[in-house]
Amino acid sequence: TKDSPPPPDCLAPMALSVFSAYLSVTRGLQRDYMLEPAGSHGVWGLDDYHCLPFYFGACQLQGNQGDADVTPQSVHNADLLRTRGDDLMYLGCIRYVKELKPGVPFFESSPMLDDISRLPSWGRVSRGLLRLYEGEVLDKMPVVQHFEFGALFKATWTPSQPPREAPTRTFINGPGGEECIAPWAQPDPGLGPSNGSMPPMQAPWSRNPGTGTGRGRSGGLPPTTRAPWAK
Asked: Which of 64, 88, 196, 201 has the fewest CB atoms lying closer than 10 Å?
């Protein structure tokens, strides 16, 4: 409905039916007008908005649900793609990719999909595709800004995140068993007890008298530049 999400038991059938119809329309437009999906990584990634059909297709096959003969390696079986691509969304997506790029080895045209086919189960495939969708779509403002936000899909992300502080301590112990501390967190004998913060940077000429060379040792002034013959 408009004001409330559908019941959970309807989500899977809705996703498969709605996205199947959506893909049919978009693929028809791409073929008729010789268009290409606007991908951001070329062959080295899935098109941003085409992550979901692959993800939904992997979820459809998760647990095999009577399709024990269909494994991630089945994407290399042309007969299976032809006979099962209409009812299994993942195989249909793979079939369409191969139709767009005939005569090109699959590992060259779609290296990421070829790598995914080596995973041992559809559960692993679906979890990886979900992380890919979160990283490439939901976590990127230039992509997700085109979504239709509203009561069902709210824009509740944080506009910006505070910068992370560089760690000063690790879980690795030193040779004597003591805790390793980053160089910038080491206590400076001349500055008193360390509070874990970086010591202030000092210009060479601001050091204590007696630590410099040449003229300008005292008074906190920089040494005067002198010509070699004036030494």
From this structure: 201
